[in-house]
Amino acid sequence: MSQPRVVVLISGDGSNLQALIDESRNNILNAEIVLVVSNRKAAFGLERAKNAGIQTLYFPLKPYRDAGRTREEYDSDLASSIAEFKPDLLVCAGWMHIDSGALIARFPGRIINLHPALPGEFPGAHGIEDAFAAWQRGEILRSGCMVHHVIKDLDAGEPIATKEVPFEMGDTLEGYSNKIHKAEHELIVESTNLALEKLHPINR
Ligand code: GRF
After folding, report:
1. Which of 181, 185, 188, 189 to mutate to test the pocket of ligand 1 (most atoms within 8 A of CB)?
2. Structural domains present in the chain
3. Fewest Cβ atoms nearer than 10 Å: which of 11, 40, 136, 195?
4. Measured in angstroms, how far is the CA atom of residue 33 from the centroid of ligand 1?
């Protein structure tokens, strides 16, 4: 039986991609990563993918902007390039673009996103920093991370799984960020498996 096909979208270091690669090798992630997409050429995640023998696609927005083309055209062309790899699921693991709608239209119910905060809390690119500041103001005792289905609203689709990470006395932003990232590395693998199970409940 062939494994479900996953495309991972990244913009940076790719430590979550690495968790997926490692657990796919350990047969804990029940999927094959068939493509890694980055919108940034310098993203270290591209190296991680190449080292693992996974195909990569560097797909920058800037040439579209420079040519006066729209964000929708970019997303639509990206969706077409990804579709060639016949993915069952797209996993946004530190993908710092907000879909204009073209990706969702092409892969409805088949895109999930990792966000470093709990559902309904601290949307946007600074989830950890915003939660840390709220803790320092005495407003919260814990934050965490979630993987959710991607819808048009930012960091807001139905959660697939969450992990709470409590604040502890003496936490620094760096130390707390590390705890969140550790939790994310487990969560991304569990959530990808869960999302795939829902797509393929019994035998594929
Ligand atoms: C993660 O914290 C993710 O939640 C956020 O960007 C970070 C990506 O980390 N959106 P990495 O590139 O997987 O190391």
Report:
1. 181
2. 5-199 (3.40.50.170)
3. 136
4. 18
